[in-house]
Design brief:
Elements: E1 7-12, H1 20-33, E2 38-43, H2 45-48, H3 55-72, E3 80-83, H4 89-98, H5 103-107, H6 110-116, H7 125-139, E4 145-148, H8 153-169, E5 183-186, H9 220-228, H10 248-261, H11 265-272, H12 277-304, H13 306-335
Parallel strand pairs: 1-2, 2-3, 4-5
The structure holds tryptophan.
Length: 338
């Protein structure tokens, strides 16, 4: 079975409120990888329903993530863009990998603990099994590289453990070295985008305050207003990186500026050190609008064209199935299914 050396797989959940953190921390990085890798970018709708999703919104949000990939610059003709639920290999492989993964491994997953919170008894079984579905996503394509944010590192390590155990358990039956170990491409430590209302919390889809995030559906006025009202402290910007210590909101705005301008925070401080927020914020708003409006404008245009997005997902799913199905067929053989 053919094993590429440079196949990327990644996914974004269609849970609404796609924001600047999703763009700078994930989607933007997907674009550059096209130059060097064969890329498969998934809209992980099956992951989304591990928490309740309104069905109408789920459909809309699925198209929106696909539109964001394309608007950001992923080439839908060259790369594979599709939604997970259209390719049955994900569900089928998940079941087999459920029987490889150990309960003790899943019990260590910090994201489950955080998301389930105190009311663990009432969390969906899907939320618990989420990391196994993610492993299946990656392994169904025998992907070699997975761009993930810091928060998904543990899940990727689990995928590596599952791949290894499958290979060992079935070594005598043709499973030896079957799954490659997927390598993380850790992105976004430099661009952890925090809430505009609280510099100690990550920018999040689920924050009740819309003012806490810049979304990819915001207008230029929305963006300017959110930046103007972003929480800050009374000091001017420092000239050195050290001066951002213990100033999470200032650090966040400087970080956002740096990420959008594609320069280091040091460089931003060299230029803006000594400025008051009253002058830095308008500069940041202008930069944000300059960088984001081509993307948000294109996304809005694509969202009007449901037929086009539908055809991208349809074609992407066919191409994805063509890769994943033979892998799953071989896995079934290896485990002894007839
Ligand atoms: N769990 C990832 C997140 O929330 C999304 C995801 C699902 C993913 N399947 C994946 C990422 C496979 C990388 C590879 O960010």
């Amino acid at each position: 079975m053919e094993q590429p050396t440079n196949r990327v797989f990644s996914g974004v959940q269609p849970t609404g409120n796609l924001h600047l953190g999703n763009y700078l921390g994930a989607i933007r990085n997907f674009v550059g990888l096209q130059e060097t890798h064969e890329c498969i970018y998934c809209v992980v709708d099956m992951h989304a329903i591990t928490a309740w999703q309104d069905p109408k919104e789920l459909a809309h949000n699925t198209r929106e993530v696909a539109a964001a990939y394309i608007a950001a610059g992923v080439d839908a003709d060259k790369q594979v863009i599709f939604n997970q639920s259209k390719v049955s290999a994900h569900a089928e492989l998940t079941w087999i990998l459920n029987c490889v993964a150990r309960i003790g491994w899943l019990n260590r997953m910090t994201q489950f603990k955080e998301k389930a919170g105190k009311n663990r008894e009432n969390a969906s079984v899907g939320l618990y099994d989420y990391p196994v579905l993610m492993a299946a996503d990656i392994l169904a394509y025998r992907a070699t590289h997975v761009p993930v944010g810091d928060d998904q590192k543990q899940h990727l390590e689990l995928a590596r453990d599952i791949a290894q155990k499958f290979n060992n358990d079935f070594a005598e039956f043709g499973g030896e070295d079957f799954f490659p170990q997927p390598e993380p491409l850790i992105m976004g430590a430099a661009t952890r985008v925090m809430s505009l209302r609280d510099g100690s919390k990550k920018m999040s889809k689920s924050d009740p305050s819309d003012m806490s995030r810049i979304t990819l559906t915001d207008t230029a006025d929305d963006i300017a207003k959110k930046i103007r009202k972003a929480r800050t402290d009374p000091e001017p910007l420092p000239s050195e990186l050290d001066g951002l210590k213990d100033r999470p909101e200032a650090d966040n705005l400087v970080g956002i500026y740096a990420a959008l301008a594609d320069v280091t925070k040091e460089a931003v401080l060299q230029e803006h050190g000594g400025s008051q927020f009253s002058s830095f914020k308008p500069a940041l708003a202008d930069l944000a609008n300059e960088k984001l409006s081509p993307i948000t404008g294109e996304m809005a245009r694509l969202m009007e064209d449901t037929t086009y997005i539908g055809s991208v997902l349809q074609k992407g799913s066919q191409r994805a199935s063509a890769i994943a199905q033979p892998v799953v067929a071989r896995v079934k053989e290896i485990v002894g299914f007839i």
